[in-house]
Recover the amino acids of this structure.
């Protein structure tokens, strides 16, 4: 899988392969620089590479080369982790870093990005799941439909901003990887800060309320609108987990959705 690109781009292997459900990665050296060779295993990853190229290193890792399913990326060499920060007393600062990185990615660009995926298409699995399971999922679906029918501050979105997708690039700061190439209201991109299932505190209502105040202030979003996007996103996440099926993770996403729904009623 990696051999043709190692040859073509004159790369030297610099670590063990990393296999995920959506891509195959290999740390490499390119022109004496640390880089990451990534070969997409699904279409979302392929689209994501095009978006990384479009950002041209502004708020995201540089793309050094791109061909078909393969992309050669700048490699994060910093030791800091936003997930570790959030779990060890730095939750507020981690959220602010996520917001600032998102703001850089949302900034207008001169060149349009061809064929981004509209949010309405991204949410297509939520309504059928809501019809099947009802309850909080139905409330999330209803909110999503209202939001999608009247989107504000529409821009190109990362689509999957969370603590493991914003990495430490040392002198270049915190930069994004692994986008989904979406197009829609910018508020959507801040919802996943509340729903990263790797962070044990996401189901704590006190943590939720604190981060709501921080993220809405940092991102310049009205708290109610942000709550609606959190409910919609968490519902979509739950729908995907139910489809896997992964009941434990679905329940975690639904717990976040219920917190958001409860806050909306206050």
């Amino acid at each position: 899988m990696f051999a043709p690109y190692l040859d073509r781009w004159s790369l030297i292997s610099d670590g063990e392969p990393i296999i995920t459900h959506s891509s195959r990665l290999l740390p490499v050296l390119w022109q004496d620089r640390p880089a990451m060779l990534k070969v997409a295993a699904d279409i979302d990853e392929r689209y994501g590479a095009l978006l990384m190229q479009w950002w041209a290193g502004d708020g995201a890792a540089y793309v050094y080369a791109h061909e078909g399913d393969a992309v050669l990326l700048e490699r994060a060499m910093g030791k800091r982790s936003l997930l570790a920060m959030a779990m060890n007393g730095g939750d507020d600062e981690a959220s602010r870093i996520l917001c600032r990185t998102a703001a850089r990615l949302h900034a207008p660009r001169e060149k349009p990005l061809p064929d981004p995926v509209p949010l309405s298409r991204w949410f297509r699995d939520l309504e059928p799941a809501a019809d099947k399971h009802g309850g909080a999922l139905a409330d999330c679906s209803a909110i999503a439909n209202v939001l999608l029918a009247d989107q504000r501050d529409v821009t190109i979105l990362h689509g999957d901003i969370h603590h493991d997708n914003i990495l430490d690039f040392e002198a270049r700061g915190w930069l994004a990887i692994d986008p989904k190439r979406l197009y829609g209201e910018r508020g959507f991109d801040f919802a996943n800060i509340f729903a990263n299932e790797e962070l044990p505190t996401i189901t704590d209502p006190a943590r939720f309320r604190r981060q709501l105040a921080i993220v809405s202030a940092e991102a310049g979003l009205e708290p109610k609108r942000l709550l609606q996007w959190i409910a919609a996103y968490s519902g979509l996440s739950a729908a995907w987990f139910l489809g896997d099926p992964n009941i434990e993770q679905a329940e975690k996403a639904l717990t976040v959705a219920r917190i958001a729904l409860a806050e909306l009623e206050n």
About this structure: The mean pLDDT is 96. Residues 223-243 form the longest helix (21 residues). The radius of gyration is 19 Å.
